[in-house]
Write a structure and sequence with these properties.
single chain; 112 residues; mainly alpha; Arc Repressor Mutant, subunit A; 3 strands; DNA-binding; WH-like_DNA-bd_sf; transcription; WH_DNA-bd_sf
Length: 112
């Protein structure tokens, strides 16, 4: 059996599902203040490193965060938000909202 290829809409739905986990939203909110090491995030959020790693893997796989190594010490991982991806996700949500508003407006005009 062949596995179907995700459509762009499927990819956005998966991103939203990933963001449905409260701990991941806390991570994004912390990263909105600037890039941080895994250790700093773990301490700030009060989560164990392995728990943080699990959530970061999900966020990375869906392109919501980016990762790089510390320039002076390769042992440290630094995370930051992927602003381009978040803006694109926001644009998808705005499009859905605009479509819903258009539908509501059209329904209101029909019932008048």
């Amino acid at each position: 059996m062949t596995q179907g290829v995700d459509t762009p809409q499927d990819a956005w739905m998966k991103c939203l599902a990933v963001l449905g986990e409260p701990q991941r939203l806390r991570i994004l909110r912390a990263l909105a203040e600037g890039e941080q090491t895994a250790g700093a995030l773990s301490e700030r959020l009060g989560v164990r490193q392995n728990t943080l790693s699990h959530h970061m893997r999900q966020l990375r796989e869906h392109g919501l965060v980016e990762v790089r190594r510390h320039p002076h010490d390769e042992r440290y991982t630094i995370y930051r938000l992927n602003g381009r991806r978040l803006r694109a996700l926001s644009a998808v949500l705005m499009d859905w909202a605009a479509r819903a508003e258009t539908e509501i407006d059209a329904a209101g005009r029909r019932s008048s």
